[in-house]
Amino acid sequence: MTANNRRKTFIVDAPTQARMVFSISILPMSVILVAAVAMWILSNRLLDEAQSSNAALPSLGLLTMSQFVFVVATGTVAVLEALRYSHRVVGPAMRITRALRRIRDGGLDARITLRKGDELTEVADEVNALIDHLRQHGFRAQPDAAAGIATADTAATGAGAPAQPAATATAVTTSSEADDHDD
Asked: How confident is the model at residue 1 (pLDDT cuts 50, 70, 90)?
């Protein structure tokens, strides 16, 4: 990923990313927490046994503290990785949604450009192929927005229907705009 193509905002859709981070990190965090509690209970039993037999175990305190640091560090890494992954899914999903809205409004010049490492590239490629197919076959938006269905241009179908207005020219992203998008 080049420096000029980096994301400027890490949180692009907070509710969606929060659900994704929670669902990705809940299982590993639960397992780590259960393991930490089990180790703490066993360490306390060992410490009680050592005190009752007048044995000194100075390294047990260090072991318990390192366990605590490990749990916190591992949990932090798990949440950060889940957040990073969620951004690679939610950002592209937002771009695809934006492009589909433009297509629905008749903007057949919409294109989806994703960054290196983003997920959903196959979906974006298929939407771009659909746009190309619709454009090649002369599909335009219905003048009646209530219809909500795109039809072929009258010249392409040979039907005697009235001419339809041309689609508005608004691209989802251009190569110069791709650097400016936050998602």
From this structure: very low
